[in-house]
Amino acid sequence: MLFGTSGIRGEVGSKITPELVYRIARITGDYSKRVFVGRDARSSGKYLEEYIVSGLIESGSDGIICGILPTPSLSYVCAKEKSFGIMITASHNPPSHNGIKILDSLGKEISIKIENEIEKKFNELNKEKSIKAKSNSSCFGQVGFEENVFEKHIEHNLSFFNLQNLEKKRILIDGGNGAGSFASPLSIRNMGGSSLTLNCEYSGSPNRLLEPTNENLKETISLAGNLNLLGAAHDGDCDRTVLFDGKGLIGLDEQLALMIEALVQTKGKGRNRIVSTVEASLLIREVCEAYDCELIITPVGSRNIAEKMIEKKALFGGEPCGEYIFNNGILCPDALFSIMKFYEMLSMNGKERFRRAKNNNFMARDKLFCRELKKKGALERIKKKIRKFEGKISLEDGIRVDFDEGWFLIRPSGTEEIMRITLEHKSKKKGEELHGKLRKIVKESV
What we know:
Helix content: 25-40%
CATH class of the largest domain: Alpha Beta
Number of strands: 20
Strand content: 15-25%
CATH topology of the largest domain: Alpha-D-Glucose-1,6-Bisphosphate, Chain A, domain 3
Number of domains: 4
Oligomer: single chain
């Protein structure tokens, strides 16, 4: 399979090759007369961009180069121009990786149906020894450029905020030397605030690993403590926003709960619909019940959330990894809107609010290495061993077991060579014991 849960990713030179991206682009051009092309700040991005634009032109589509920008900014221009887009990124994967996300004319990731069509056409092209160029030059597309895209995206986001009563605050931003390194601080400035920045220069060799975790943000968290500031960090393509202070990351479930609470309070009365995934904690259910919201659960993946939001006309959709989709016309996780909304909360309530939400249950999120080709077999072996556990079993997305005191989920990552374990239990002691048992089962199975 080419596509994972969020596009195609892998090591540049082995999985991600010029020939692969050229052929994918050539096929993508069949779906849209214009295709907007963006990239994150990885050193391989410009190199791959040239092959992608060449493939688009060969298909007869115009390749519109947008340069380095966040994925949600590319989503914004795709929706505005009703055109497809290709984002060159591997998100939070290591700098040696890269990949592509294909966005449709609504600005969301393409459907599984279109992915399957593209994969079928790709396999047909692979049977050819070489790709024949068109003989009629009038059938070729053209190269174009779209400038200031993330600035226009930020201006669009600002229209959803009332800035008149906001108190000026300062926030610490760690951009991970990625696509949000300039756009995120600009978002705060346009909200009337200021930011102290770290790792906010474009770099093909970022100063930290791109996934915003406690371990990878040690230096920034220490700085936040010394300066008594709330901080926000992004991944490589700026579709995630993760909050922290001097004590470390704000819990990702707690952060998601705070966002739901803030949005529902802003929206006012009425039964709002909220979309989340099978990985969300019981705290999310509790917050939705407290505000009389309908919680809709999907398999993991922002595309699943976006599609369900469209179907159910939902107010908001989010995952406990810092990826949030808002009812603002941008149908992919928008880290710029996220940081603006969190800044609004900081301005109105102070940074103490971000430690207010508490999940009193034991929560564990873990991952173990599992080769791509072994995932399917490993999952089957895990299923057999899980049957001895009491509880309601769901196989919709991996293996989820719900029981009286909590739940756990084991699923293969769709973007990395890992098997994920997520666990929630009302008892810390029992939760830790169960975590140990699940780790052993997964280790023996992968």
